[in-house]
Amino acid sequence: MAAQKLTKGRLIQIIILMIILITAFIWRTVTYQAKPIVKIETKICNLNLGNCLFNINNKQVTVTLSPPRPQANTPIRLQINNIDAHPSAIVSGITMNKRIAPIIFTQNKNAWQGEFTVPQYTHDNMIWGIDIKINDKTYSSEFTVTK
After folding, report:
1. What is the pairing mode between strands 88-93 and 99-103?
2. Which of the residues 55, 117, 144, 145 has an alpha carbon 20 to 30 A from that of 98?
């Protein structure tokens, strides 16, 4: 593209465009209102201490971690009893803010079972969280993994 001489008309057009852009930027900055942050208090259950009990649709649902004292790089089984809906879950590291693949559940009689492993990190003990989603509601649990 060949360079063109800057004419008076082109200079006025550039200045008007810059004024419009600067005005729009200032207007959005001045009129911006942050969305309020809503904190929902949830009870987080520790799976290392035993089974977690949740009340879902007026039914007592039990979540079990096997083995109760899991270790890194070994299979860990999560079992959810007394529920009809297909659950989904995601395991994420709390100590190091790491996320691993979701848990895939299969139905076994009156329970859903899923298996996963967590990798080994530099910490001797690492806290992991499990967010279990059932019927568009999330139930949180924690467990600690040792090296």
Report:
1. antiparallel
2. 55
Burial class (CB in 10 A: 0-12, 13-18, 19+), 100: middle
- Find the helix or strand (DSSP H, E) in which 11 lies: helix 8-31
pLDDT tops 90 at residue 3: no
CA distance to 4, 117, 128, 131, per residue, from 96 (Å): 56, 16, 9, 16
For residue 53 the two structure tokens come to: 């009990």
Q: Give the residues across from 80 on adjacent strands.
A: 63, 112
Tokens read off for 108? 């076994």
pTM exceeds 0.70 for this model: no
Q: What secondary structure does DSSP assign to 74-127, as a single string?
A: S-EEEEEES--SPPEEEEEESSS--EEEEEPEEEETTEEEEEE-----SSSEEE
Gap between the Cα atoms of 24 and 99, Å rounded: 39
